[in-house]
Write a structure and sequence with these properties.
By secondary structure, chain A is α/β, with parallel strands linked by helices. Chain A has helices spanning 4-16, 21-37, 42-58, 67-83, 106-119, 136-147, 160-168, 189-202, 219-230, 248-254, 277-285; strands spanning 94-100, 124-128, 150-152, 176-180, 206-212, 234-238, 259-264, 272-274. The chains are: A alpha/beta, B alpha/beta. The structure holds guanosine-5'-triphosphate (2 copies) and magnesium ion (2 copies). One guanosine-5'-triphosphate (GTP) sits between chains A (100, 102-108, 130, 133, 182-183, 210, 238-239, 241, 264-267, 271) and B (92-93, 123, 175, 177).
Chain lengths: 286, 278
């Protein structure tokens, strides 16, 4: 599905019956507008559209295909290449650590991922490692209660690294442990160090970056910093039930090579979906 | 010689890139472009005049006219004997609850008594989060059971404020997507019952183009009197300030710059312009 603007731009190529420089330049300009409005990183937009233009002019249109379809295929192909195919979490014993910027949906996603894995028959424990935010303990504890997952936390402990070490020692009978951490951003050196220490102590096999789909141009740089700190194994894109297209997700993947594992689509523990690359791209352009 | 559209457009593309990378939403960037081209097209350029300098000046003038000077002085709005009712709205996770605590602290330092209404009756831990802040700041919190009616909480808080002569009632509402019809209707109900003197939109400075849709829909729904932009400390360039401000033509009152109660500063146009062009 393409936005009306893109569909109109491509009509010209359909009418022309071939792709010439002038018509592809016009289409590229409209693709750029669509991607920028979807919050895709400016430099990434230029890179992707340069590729599209080059390929549209140099690749022969396959026989029996309308040149308009040919351009659409190249467009999808280029974006899916950047986006990746996504990946699934193993349905097995694992430790998952959730990190990300303030308010992007970590705590809520912890409950969603727990619920998802519980439905697959795994026993899940939620580990509350946010010692900074007021009410963080109560928030995750209540969510754990809602889904019947085990909860590990300590309202008194102020040192999150010590806390994680101690809590993980109490969690033997669980298949999956999900560690919810405090919000932080790339300029907070002490909090980035805290995150590194939690990862060292918790040794999570999965380190997932939670990314809000409404994020703008800052997404790429932030994701890069988190990746350089602890090495991300996946991305969870949240709040896709709103109107944002999630263009920042492209940068989060492009800058880290981490694939998208889940998409959050609401506030309740059931509001989570497996990532579908083609569907994501068509929403981006729609 | 006179400035041609070609010359202007070629110079504009550098400025455009900078604005987009600073998170100014695309429609607003295009509006600025039209304004600058209108302003400079056919203008006579003398020898030695740098055209890009003219574009820079014209752009800064356009932005300066978009950003409305904050004209709301909370302290001055407080009338003894009648509580000033301020309602905070915005999408999920933008920083409403934390901003309320900061504003209460700022008001306290100026000698005003404020209290809080826990009208987010939905989210896990929402009431506990506010309880902690109110405990830290010595503020009265009116709350009901989780799942209660947000409008009823606001009503009770206002009754309490009148009975106990509180200067300000700060109403914390749940985050909501501007596209969720039911939640937008719930927000309108809170407004109808509470009749706030001010409705403040709390927006995340990291937001991209969605800032426009958020601002439009929240403004159309309950009417926004002022904006507070949060998480400026995350190095967000803050273009969202321009996107939101130009879309609903309302002033940005404060910028939130961190986790502590002190981290709330009055919006300053000059500082913002400098940061945007940094
Ligand atoms: N509509 C919608 N809301 C979401 C989604 N994910 C999270 N939220 C909401 O976003 C807000 C912030 O979510 P949290 O889980 O508290 O975010 P966080 O990253 O843990 O925040 P910090 O711990 O403060 O950094 C809450 O109101 C959530 O209900 C989603 O997919 N859709
Ligand atoms: N760095 C930084 N973090 C902030 C700022 N304002 C709020 N936060 C953090 O952002 C997260 C979300 O803040 P909340 O106040 O819970 O946001 P909210 O809008 O009330 O969230 P919901 O009620 O779930 O919609 C918390 O971790 C806050 O500490 C700010 O100016 N800078
Ligand atoms: Mg959290
Ligand atoms: Mg809140």
């Amino acid at each position: 599905s393409l936005s009306d603007a893109l569909r109109n731009a491509l009509k010209k190529i359909a009418l022309l019956g071939r792709i010439d420089e002038a018509s592809i330049k016009e289409v590229v300009r409209d693709i750029q507008r669509a991607l920028l409005k979807a919050d895709v990183n400016v430099k990434l937009v230029l890179r992707v559209t340069n590729n599209i233009e080059k390929r549209a002019l140099s690749e022969k249109v396959p026989p029996g295909i309308n040149p308009r379809e040919h351009v659409i295929r190249i467009l999808y192909d280029e974006l899916v290449q950047v986006m990746g195919q996504g990946r699934s979490l193993p349905l097995d014993k694992q430790r998952i650590m959730l990190v990300g910027i303030y308010g992007q949906g970590k705590t809520t996603s912890a409950a969603k991922i727990a619920r998802f894995l519980q439905k697959k028959g795994l026993k899940v424990g939620l580990v509350q490692a946010d010692t900074h935010r007021p009410g963080a303990y109560d928030q995750l504890k209540q969510l754990a209660g809602q889904i019947g997952a085990s909860f590990y936390g300590d309202k008194e402990e102020k040192n999150s690294v010590k806390l994680v070490k101690r809590l993980l020692a109490q969690t033997e009978k669980k298949d999956v442990l999900i560690i919810d951490t405090s919000g932080r951003h790339r300029l907070e050196k002490d909090l980035i160090d805290e995150m590194k220490s939690i990862a060292e102590v918790g040794k999570p096999g999965e380190r997932l970056l939670i990314v809000d789909s409404t994020m703008g141009q800052a997404a790429g740089e932030q994701a890069k910093a988190f990746h350089e700190a602890i090495g991300l194994t996946g991305v969870v894109l949240t709040k896709m039930d709103g109107s944002a297209k999630g263009g920042g997700a492209l940068s989060s993947v492009a800058e880290t090579e981490a694939q998208i594992v889940f998409v959050g689509t609401g506030e309740k523990p059931d509001d989570i979906e497996i990532f579908d690359s083609t569907r994501f791209v068509s929403q981006l352009l729609g | 010689k006179r400035l041609t559209i070609l010359k202007l457009e070629s110079l504009w593309s550098d400025f455009e890139m900078g604005l987009l990378e600073s998170d100014v939403a695309l429609p607003v960037v295009e509006e600025l472009r039209d304004g600058v081209i209108d302003d400079l097209l056919d203008k006579r350029v003398g020898l030695g005049m740098h055209v890009s300098h003219l574009v820079d000046k014209s752009l800064k003038k356009a932005i300066d006219s978009i950003l409305i000077e904050p004209d709301i002085d909370l302290g001055k709005m407080i009338v003894k004997g009648k509580p000033l009712i301020i309602m905070f709205v915005g999408v999920n996770g933008s920083g409403k609850t934390t901003t309320i605590a900061k504003l209460a602290w700022a008001l306290k330092k100026e000698g005003h008594t404020s209290m809080v209404a826990a009208s987010d009756t939905f989210r896990a831990g929402a009431i506990e989060q506010l309880e902690k802040h109110c405990e830290n700041l010595g503020l009265k919190l009116v709350k009901h059971k989780p799942g209660g009616d947000p409008a009823a909480v606001a009503y009770d808080a206002i009754e309490y404020a009148r009975a106990h002569r509180k200067d300000v009632v700060l109403i914390d509402t749940a985050g909501r997507m501007q596209t969720n019809v039911n939640l937008m209707a719930e927000m309108e109900k809170i407004k109808r019952v509470a009749k706030p003197d001010l409705i403040i939109f709390v927006g995340d400075a990291l937001t991209g183009n969605d800032a426009i849709d958020q601002a439009e829909k929240f403004n159309a729904s309950v009417g926004i009197d002022g904006i507070i932009l949060t998480k400026i400390d995350s190095d967000a360039k803050g273009g969202a300030a321009l996107s939101i401000g130009s879309t609903i033509k309302k002033p940005i009152l404060f910028l939130a710059t961190g986790q502590d109660y002190e981290d709330l500063v009055p919006f300053d146009k000059g500082w913002f312009m400098e940061r945007l062009f940094a």
